[in-house]
Amino acid sequence: MKMIVAIIKPFRLDAVREALAEVGVSGMTVTEVRGFGRQKGHTELYRGAEYVVDLLPKIKLEVALPSERVEQAVEVIARAAKTGQIGDGKIFVYDLDQTVRIRTGEKGPDAV
Prior knowledge:
By secondary structure, this protein is α+β, with helices and mostly antiparallel strands. The chain has helices at residues 13-22, 70-81, and strands spanning 2-8, 29-35, 42-46, 49-53, 56-65, 89-95. The model has no long low-confidence stretch (mean pLDDT 90).
């Protein structure tokens, strides 16, 4: 089992969610986060004063999948999240040692 964590632009969430649903991914966790990478933020003008916004709003998606489905999901996320602009995000894949469905006690891929 693997855990996919993707950091994407907020306005790409619906496209990514729909693309994952089309390939049979039925569950995910979505969190609103803030961060920066190479973008290093940007400056904005508010009521005549310039200020630095160095933590930009992003969306963090977490998806647990059987190992054999990970490559397809990563490709789908990358394709749906891509705008071609700086700050499109990152995808991380982690090993998932154990999964347990609390309600039934199912373990492993059956718990997802």
